[in-house]
Amino acid sequence: MPGKARVGVDVGGTFTDLVLFDPESGRIAHLKVPTTPRNPVTGVMNAVLEAVEDLSRVSVLVHATTLGTNMFFGQSGIEPPRAALITNKGFEDVIEIGRQNRPELYNPYFERPRPLIPRSRRHGVRGRIDARGREVEPLDADAVRRAARLECSSGVRVFVVSFLHSYRNPAHEEVAARIIEEECPGAIVVTSHEVDPQPMEYERTSTAVVNALLKPILSSYLERLLRELESRGFKGKLLVMQSSGGVADASEALERPAAFIESGPSAGAVAVAYFSKLMGRGKALGFDMGGTTAKASSIIGGEPEVVDIYEVGGRIHHGRLVRGSGYPVRFPYIDLAEVSAGGGTIAWVDPGGALRVGPRSAGADPGPACYGRGGSDPTITDAHLILGRLPSVLAGRLKLGRDLAEKAVKERIADPLGLDVAEAAWAIIRIANAIMGKALRLVSIERGHDPREFTLYAFGGAGPLHAVELAEELGIGEVVIPPMPGVFSALGLLVSDYRHDYHEAIVKRVGEVDDRELEEVFERLEEGAVRTLLGEGIPRDRIVLRRFVDAKYWGQAYTLRVPYAGSVEATVKTFHSLHEARYGFSSPDEDVEIVVARVEAVGVTDKPLIKASQAGTGEARPKGWREAYVGGSWHRMAVYDRERLGVGAEVCGPAIVEEVDSTIVIPPGYCGRVDALGSLVIRRG
Amino acid sequence: MVDKLTVELIRNAAVFASEEMGIVLRNTAYSPNIKDRLDHTCSVLTPRGELAAQAEHIPVHLGSMAIGVMNTLEYLDREGESLEPGDIVMVNDPYIAGTHLNDIMLLKPVYVRGRLVAIVADKAHHVDVGGTVPGSLGGDVREFLQEGVVIPPTKIVIGGRLRGDVIKLIAENVRTPEYFRGDLKAQIAALNVGERRIAELAEKYGVDAVLEAWDEILAYTERYTRGRVRELGRYGRFKAVDYIELDSELVPIRVTIELKEDGGVTVDFEGTHPQVDAPINAVYGVTVASATFALKSTIDPEMPVNHGFYRAVTIRAPEGSLVNPVKPAPVSGGNVETSQRIADTVFKALAEAFPERVPAASCGTMTNVMMGGYAGGRRWAFYETIACGSGARPQADGVDGVHTNMTNTLNTPVERVETDYPIMIIEYRLRPDSEGPGTYRGGLGVTRAFKLLEGKATVTIFSERCSTRPWGLSGGKPGEPSRHYLIKRSGERVELPCKTTIEISEGDIVYINTPGGGGYGDPCKRPRRLVERDLEEGRISLERAHRHYCYKPEKSSFNDPR
In order of start, what are the domains of chain A with their CATH numbers? Predict the structure, then answer.
């Protein structure tokens, strides 16, 4: 009889995190092992075997991987497969020209992402469908056949077919795909209308290309992982986290691998959503600070903001992906603002004599100066150590050299700026907070909210160090440090629902489309979604379906996602009022265009009932005292062991709370109390 | 005295405030120009109108905004108008606001406890501001009054009260009043956010601290700029000339750049052609923006630009010249085409000083295409700019099919064009053999062909580099020039000049070919591997490889895929 344990494994750049929930005991265990970039399966297996000896006890294993991202960042060992593109004649360069912009305005040495399919393997063939879906020129089937034969004989086994207006009429793509399958049996053939049936040829083609290239890589990875797991007795389900924050069966992942690209960071937002719901916090900001970056997400009413486009392999600037720096993928993904501010981020003085933090990072190797691995650049971690905020030994293993940190900050920052070392370290923290505050502002302001209305959930190894000071900077009144902040994202894997998103193009003005037509489209999409979820073992009564349309005023470039209100007329009304709410005005006399119909299908899972650790007591007793710098001066701080803080325990600043993989700083004037879930809830007063 | 950390926090906060204004403006704006093409800019200025912080949006607003606000404050002062709490001033007069009539600038004072702490300002490109042609750009105009409605600095909000009559007056003079109103609302919303953020800063740190911080921020930027120039360590005077096309005439733009040992820079356009009665004059603000762009790109792309930059850098342009005209010279195209050439000229002079840093010329045109007509009982109008080749770099090829220098706007997806307009795009691809040959070659231009599907239409092309070519450097050859033509339904082919307005009919096809970027270094020294890669990918022809790259295939000749 199979066991009941649920396991979440999140493969990050440096560490692979694992969280295990045993419903019988209600216990949650967690651990970290080093990631093995060349063969990530090894790291995953190391973690799993360290946590559970008998894999037959595991009923569900949820996995988040950055494999896809790594391929696009050119990591060795995962080269993309050779692929060919069949497209309209005269439009072979659409995937290279992109949206014609450059990713950096002022850098004369800018580069655009290298096209994923070289020009010599892009084949333009005659044949044209117009904007209304009518064939204006028949497909040159012979040309498709010749191209397929040529590429197949040169060893290409991945084909992408993308024709203009295929979202309206896929006939040419379907015929071409059939011909390729005939000419090159066994090849992977991806058509653009199947993957992303909506207008804008560059984004649709790019989505199809990314999907096609990831297919062989993800499938061999997941097959290997499953084989390894099964050889150790695993009989449960292997699920994969998607960028949308929902999980899906591994077999489903193989159909749409591009939906799984940024799954680790999404899991953190899912965990925040889960906790904020349990705690009854309507507006939550997720703040995830690790070794190289800090990521912010906003969760309103338990729902993370989900957007419809992402650029894989792209560059981040000022918190946001730079348009045109990566490869667009149109799958839903949880919106995260990211800034270069992590423990290893380097502080420096620029030619004008201003203190700057980032974007360069000392990474894991050599790491911060205090690691003693030869790093001489001062980092955020060094600043914390100098200010007495970090223990002298990290995670029970890594000894930190305070003298090294002081030397780096003195030489590179304090001396050039004429500050003493502590002031310089404090300045580093403040500047880092200003940068991270910006990411948090972005995810709230862009949704039209003020950060002050939110509760801040801080996690990741370094998040709890900054959380309270950051909240003060932003005027946020409440901070939550959830249990296990160091592996909180992995915890998100255990609390997420199944999710699938389907869409179909409409591209018609209101008046050209009637309720019946939309109803048919929705039913078609829902049928597919339900079929997929049933296939994943979700009972019908746990499937929740939601209908939306993307609409805009005619001539506008931006669409708004509008819940479908049962009829076109009612939905258009909703659109006007949403537009009014979001943009401050609406134009009821203007033509409204419905661009896309969407169905979001959720399969609700059983969530673990998380209980606070039983080890601690309701009364807080410091395990020691040390001098630390907060709020601009040195204080004698009480140091607590988080494990020993039971439900109801209260800790008031100035204080430091330590646990294995993170440290919480509570400045004077703030008090934290442990709630029933084991979270430390910190407020002023 | 305010401490360094506080200054740095205020500097960061001011930049964030300007970026947040940008988010609000983009989110609330109505027209695609702003929402999708980000043709807008937001900034925070000192009470004296010195630029303190600006969100990076579009290069042509960089620097021109600073001049616009200064000029506006001077104007108000002359008129005896004072800026009171809750006032908002609107201006688009290019001779004051610094770009062209389409760019409407709004500014608002920020008062805290009765003291003026800062001015917040934003500028956005409005789709239409009247004038002889839809979109208000180009056309056969002789003076700037033909280019649209001129708004001198005017209070549209007084003490928090919107002046509906003034808004109506302007709305009646533009072709798309609903866009005008929507975008104006967005601009006001952005100013209000900026005002709130700066007021919060003053509440938090104190009014005096913020005022002192502005001074320190400008001093910082001046130090930064001078520091960078001195680090480069090349001093002296460097000259260049390049040309803009006016019918069959070439109009010279001349520049002399002086790099001084104190890190100061002077850019002087003495010797540039006098202003002309065609819409290619660039107001001083545009000249400053274009020169600033070239300097920032060359010296340090990360360099902050605010008023402190202009304490280290002086930009002089003779009054009455093409690069600093006086009324009534028309100026709508100065923004889009002349700005490119000014940047080219400054780059060329900088290449004399820093041959190892400056790329060969990029294509030097934004290639504006405007079409409009009646179809299906509706009036339609379409405007876009088309990418081209960027110049080869000292250690790398130029980039194929990309927007360069003063523009970076997105293209309109083919599927969008074909859905919304009676146009079919026949071809949209890179233009092989258009690159400037070199050890490192220039980027390829682009071919885009438009077929009219219904009725008749007016097409205006406003482009450059038909009779001149994007120059190469260090032995690199120039890129191929622009080449536009019309294929009539009858099959007849008509060559089109770079600047033209024509009538076309159903079935006619307009072909636009944009220039390639200039090459860098002797093309015969280009590694054979790279020549063969370009051949294999069809980016150059075998004939071109022979003629320009000294390429001789070994034994069996290379199989030209085209």
Answer: 5-73+218-260 (3.30.420.40), 83-204 (no CATH), 264-488 (3.30.420), 498-603 (3.30.1490), 624-684 (no CATH)
